[in-house]
Amino acid sequence: MSDQQAKLSEQEMKTYRVQGFTCTSCANIFENNVKGIQGVEDAKVNFGASKIYVHGSTTIEELEKAGAFENLKVRDEKEQKIERESFWKQKANIKVYISAVLLVMSWLLGEQYGEDHILPMIGFAAAILIGGYSLFIKGFKNLSRFKFDMNTLMTIAILGAAVIGQWGEGAMVVILFAISEALERYSVDKARQSIESLMDIAPKEALIRRGNEEMQVHVEDILVGDIMIVKPGQKLAMDGTVIKGISTLNQAAITGESVPVTKTIDNEVFAGTLNEEGLLEVKVTKKVEDTTISKIIHLVEEAQAERAPSQAFVDRFAQYYTPAIVVLALLIAVVPPLLFGADWSIWVYQGLAVLVVGCPCALVVSTPVAVVTAIGNAAKNGVLIKGGIHLEEAGALKAIAFDKTGTLTKGVPAVTDFITYSGNENELMTITAAIEKGSQHPLASAIMRKAEENRLNFNGVLVEDFQSITGKGVKAKVNNELYYVGSPNLFEEVHGSIERNQERQINEMQSLGKTVMVLGTEQEILSLIAVADEIRESSKEVISKLNSIGIETVMLTGDNQRTAAEIGKQVGVSDIKADLLPEDKLNFIKVLRGKHKSVGMVGDGVNDAPALAASTVGVAMGGAGTDTALETADIALMSDDLSQLPYTINLSRKALAIIKQNITFSLAIKLVALLLVIPGWLTLWIAIFSDMGATLLVTLNSLRLLKSKE
Fold it and tell me: Among this protein's residues, is 149 annotated catalytic?
């Protein structure tokens, strides 16, 4: 395809919502049908999100015609969501009720007049036709193309039962199959609702002020730069920056954290969050399709469309398995009568039962429902997993490397100690903060924050003759007294030496990984101020949980060995690597992968991007605030909270276990049913119950992931 064609194709891609998908194979048939429509260059179905992406030009009528085999309803993505029909009122389910009534009536007539009487036979035939009409249409179409899926297998089995006079069993098989399909539809819908609930988080309209006029505007028509007015109790419809007001916002929908966050002027706010208290005026900074919640929904949908390794294996397996079952059924039906003179009707019946048992229904549905459910659940808890492959790999992690600054620590320096030798502590802190106001050093902001916390009015202090002493500190006059604020080295120069007691205290604090600043005059040292990057409250507990589940934890940092050792000891990591450049982190991840194969990396998604990319699973902190985190990582923790990590690993391990259980159970139940052929005990009833039971159980087993919580 030329660049021009590629651009044209890109321009013409449209997204449509689809209602009525029951299984992945139906979604594949629909995709192929749409590809065959004139004017369509390419089409891709996302089964998990119930969407189809179409390159080229087509109409909704043509798309619905392509989905007529399954009565699919199609809508433009930007239109109102398709109204969800009540499960009990769905057309496919009404057919099941009618068939079931006919089956019971025919059975009663058979009891009265005998099974070979014309009346029960007509009743059973009507039940077969009404309940299996759509099944037969799909089955015959597939037969004409020599395509063997579950619809083909069921069609052959039911018609075969009718031919050998087993009308009652044929009707029962139709109804049980229809019930299993209805339950499958119900289960898949439940899993899908986890995404639809995300879509409903942000309102579709907002109160916008343009000039002096206030108006309700649909989100599609809101422009970047518009002023959005958000009243208490309302949800934000768009991302933006607060320009007026102060309030607490519940950001649980985006970050998964339940504690409301205070927002004031210049703070960033997100669509879908709930304004709890004050009136806010927000300047819109992103279009509706670029908001954080839109990105999350898009990434979750993409993730659910991506095949997990086990799903790809199952799909490949089913390709060979289904034709093999057809051949096996044919051999069972034909070989005993031809070679050993056995009764044709008995062995044809056994062959038909094998066809029903062989339906790969449970096997095919075993992985996608688990993946869709787990990814949807994670998104609701503030964890964005960007694909089934990452979901599975997170469950297999043997080691996790953590960046120190901004990941295990808050990434913001804070005053930890303030030791005074002479004068009043508040007075000295006020003087220090007033002098440091003129400094650009990051440690200066830590002192100013501490003074603000203590409600000290350092802004009212007059500072004169401010001068920076490069690499060492600053000096300035306050109340005609010359003060110095800087490193211990600066005071060694000014005073010639530092008293032994003061030097001991400085060394003690430095050995704990703290940076020490000194306030003094030309005559004496007045106070010592220790500043350190504070450890997150959750770090120690998270590392402890990970160590307890057998995961090796390593801290990687560019900081010096002494500081790294102190913080590593406090949080409890298994190993510490300090003085690392970004490329050193990358190389260490490669070494760790050589040792463990499956290695995770947790970072803030900016300077850690190379190491995140090199790890098996890259986990970024604070996805809600940074586009980089959303783009570079395989998993994003939407809040700045490490406690979501053990939850994610437990969810992944649970999903892996459920997928393995589903595949094992699907194959085991079929094997047991097939073994019943040897003594001749396999009936169509047992066959359909084993198939339906397996499908239902693997689906319900997968839905257990909805209940997985932190």
Answer: no
pLDDT in tens, 352-411: 888 777 777 777 777 877 888 888 888 888 888 888 888 989 999 999 999 887 788 887
| Per-residue pLDDT at 79 | 61
pTM: 0.70
Q: Are 347 and 337 in contact (CB under 8 A)?
A: yes
Q: What angle do CA 642, 565, 623 make, to 5 degrees?
A: 20
List Cα–Cα distances, 299 to 7, 306, 398, 682, in angstroms: 23, 11, 26, 46
Cβ-contact 629, 604 below 8 angstroms: yes
Question: CB under 8 Å to 384, separation ≥6 — which residues?
Answer: 296, 299, 300, 378, 623, 630, 635, 636, 638
For 25, 74, 135, 372, the CA distances from 70, given in Å and listed in that order, are 11, 12, 9, 21
Nearest to 362 by CA among 654, 700, 705, 685: 700
Residue 458, classed as helix, strand or coil, is helix
Q: Which of 149, 315, 403, 604 is catalytic?
A: 403
Give Cα separations from 501 to 159, 377, 509, 522 (angstroms). Answer: 98, 57, 13, 19
Q: What is the rounded radius of gyration, in angstroms, for the C-alpha atoms of the chain?
A: 34
Q: How does DSSP classify residue 164?
A: T
Three-class SS state of 222: coil
Backbone angles phi, psi at 284, to 5 degrees: -70, 130
CB-CB contact of 554 with 400 (8 Å): yes
Distance CA 588, CA 583 (A): 9
- By three-state DSSP, how is residue 256 classified? coil
H/E stretch holding 694: helix 684-703
